[in-house]
Amino acid sequence: xxxxxMHCQRSTPYICELMEEKYGVPYMPVSLFGxxxxxxxxxxxxxxxxxxxxxxxxxxxxxxKILPEIEYYKEQLRGKRVFIYQGAPRAWxxxxxxxxxxxxxxxxxxxxxxxxxxxxxxERIGDGALVIDNPNSVELREILVGYKPDxxxxxxxxxxxxxxxxxxxxxxxxxxxGPYAVYSGFLKFAKDIHTTINHPxxxxxxxxx
Length: 209
Fold this sequence. Notes:
- By secondary structure, the protein is α/β, with parallel strands linked by helices.
- It is 54% helix and 14% strand.
- The strands form two sheets. The protein has a five-stranded parallel beta sheet, with helices on both faces.
């Protein structure tokens, strides 16, 4: 291998650093969520191999395929409020992605975030947003009731609390509906968010947060 492309920036740095030290294989951290971050990843990797022109061709072609629909969903989702509770890197990767959809991130949390993860979250998130480490169920309920997000993105175990409170929920781990990476995944994510927020079932839940 000539290069390790490191997407999960919490679990894989140790392996990448070891491979660089032992075998001389360099590594490059990337994010493959959303148009901006995916395009940057392609440009960075292509530059490493001297293929900048080819990367621009791919980016232009792939973005053109999804942009009309993304613009539609952006208009529909503009101003919607979202709370993110994910694995550490995904929490800060997705702040930019939500902005690309015109959404406002009102809070972010992680279960195993390190100091550098929270520094990146704070750097990206808007003023006045909540940043919390490893919230329990009681704290999550207080957040969902108090902040009243239009969407809660988290994992499987948090889904049922969101449903009980009537808060639209998307499983951000991609186990159920994804994958959500690269350009096609971004479009799928936008569709799932739009469908979830606008599902008529939420109107039937008494005492919705």
